[in-house]
Structures are given as C-alpha cells and as structure tokens.
Amino acid sequence: MPPVGQLPCGVMNVSANYETDQHLKTRQSIWAYGAAGPLPARVLDLVAVPETALVVDVGCGNGNYLGELRRRGHRGPMLGLDLSPGMAAAAATASGASTAVADAQFLPVRTAVGRLTLAPHMLYHVPDIPLALAEIRRITAPGGRAAIVLNSLQHTHEIDALLAAVTTDLLGRPVTMVWEGKRFRSDRADELLPTVFDDVEKHDLGWVATVTSAAAVRGYVESIPASGFAVPDDRRAEVLTEFERRVAAHIAAAGSFPVTSGAVAYVCG
C-alpha cells in the first residue's frame, strides 16, 4: 500500500529563489572544497536504514540525500516531498525517487509509515516549525528515526564578517546575510526537539571549507535572496565586486578563504 494518503496540503508561496535548484546548487558547490566529504553521506552514516525500508525526505530540495541512498543500493521505496515543483522535479531526476509537491506543515503521508524521515536544511523555511516537527514525528514509524539537519551559529561567519567590513566601508553601515537559514539554528533546536521527540542525539558535523575560488564565494552571496542581503539595488554590484576582490586578496596571501559549515545533525526517535 502506498504511503501517500489524502491529507490536505497547506498553501504557501514558493520563493523565487527556490523555483529551480539553480541557487541551491550554487550554495551547495562551495562545500565541495575541503576534505570532510559530502554532507548527505555523513548524515546517512549516522542511521541504520534497512535496505527495503520506506524513506521519506521532507523538503527534499534537489535530491542529494535520496541520490546518496540510491548510490548506497537502497532498494526500498523513497518519497521526496518539497513545496517547490522545480525542486521536486530536480530530486526525481537526480535520484529516481517518487516525488510530490507538499507543505511540511501538512504532510500527505499516512501516520507511522517511514522507517527513516529526513528533514535536511529545511525547517527554517517553514512558518510553523513546531507543526512541521509534529508532522515529521507523526509519519515516522515506531522504532524509526528522523534525521534533522540544521546550522549552528558559526555557519559562514567568515563571510558575514567580511560582508560587514565591506558594507561599512562602502555604505557606512554593516550589512550581513539575514536570510531564512538563520531563522532556526541549532541553539533553538536544542530546546525544541526534546519537546517533540523522546530521544534526541546531536551530532556536530561542521567543518571548514578551504575555498580557492573568489568567484565561488561571491556566488554564494549572490545566490542569497535580495531580501536576505539588504543592500540597495544600485550598490549591490559595487559591494559584491569589492567583496570578491577582498576574498581574492585573502586567497592570494593565504592560499584559500575559510568558510565554516556549522552543520548539525539530530537523530530523533
């Protein structure tokens, strides 16, 4: 019997930043620098998933986690859910999994069917985070696990510091990224997750990417929605050009520009 039921999907607006996976791919590419290895593989190493079990990826994005499961030979059903039709389509193409457009606050999945429920880097997009967590708990089978991935307060702090310095010099005031990713981080998750799940294991998976391309660091900032980097439109190019110049100078002097990934994984049951 398929896991998808007839529960209602809530209505939310998909940000233009997520209509396709172009901007997400740009942000993901910066983490290829360094020796930590792909994050989906490191997260999946934390959970034992029977090879025939149902896996539900809530907020599946462009399918990196589902694709990693497929590479590992997972033979069970995999369902990717995302609010963005473009992301759901990209995930299906990347992994071969079944995907659907759905709101994390009202998952169209029957209760207690998933052996593993994934929620990687997505909760900070959801208006009602406790409701989404309750839904993740609801669809996870007894004895199953939910793997939730967020960022710590240290995530990309080097970029923030340099942006603040550049905008102070050019605009007379510091501007840093204030986009959705900062809305719900590990400090808040430490408090909230134990109120939803009986068992919460926290794993610090952070590392420092040593980026050797100034263009890649600039691309990361450019991929952030304009609302998350509040520089006047007529000064944005100037700020980004000076930012890239200073990153390039740092790379020329030190060999690379450090960018901290504050990835934190919670394995909950």
From TrEMBL:
This protein's UniProt keywords: Methyltransferase, Transferase
Q: Which residues form the Methyltransferase type domain?
A: 56-148
GO BP annotations listed: methylation
**Could you tell me what this protein is called?**
Methyltransferase family protein
Q: Name one GO molecular function term.
A: S-adenosylmethionine-dependent methyltransferase activity
- Establish whether keyword Lipoprotein is in the entry: no
Show the Pfam families listed in the entry: Methyltransf_11
Tell me the superkingdom of the source.
Answer: Bacteria
Q: Which Gene3D superfamilies match?
A: Vaccinia Virus protein VP39 (3.40.50.150)
Organism listed in the record: Asanoa ferruginea
